[in-house]
Amino acid sequence: MNKTKLQCLVLACLFSSCAMVPAHADILATELLDRVKKGDVTARYYLRGITEGISWYNTAIGRNDGALFCEPPNLAITQEQYIDIMERYLEANPSLKKMGFAGTILIRALKDTFPCRAR
Question: Which residue blocks in the chain are alpha helix, DSSP H?
Answer without folding.
Answer: 3-20, 29-37, 41-61, 79-92, 102-113
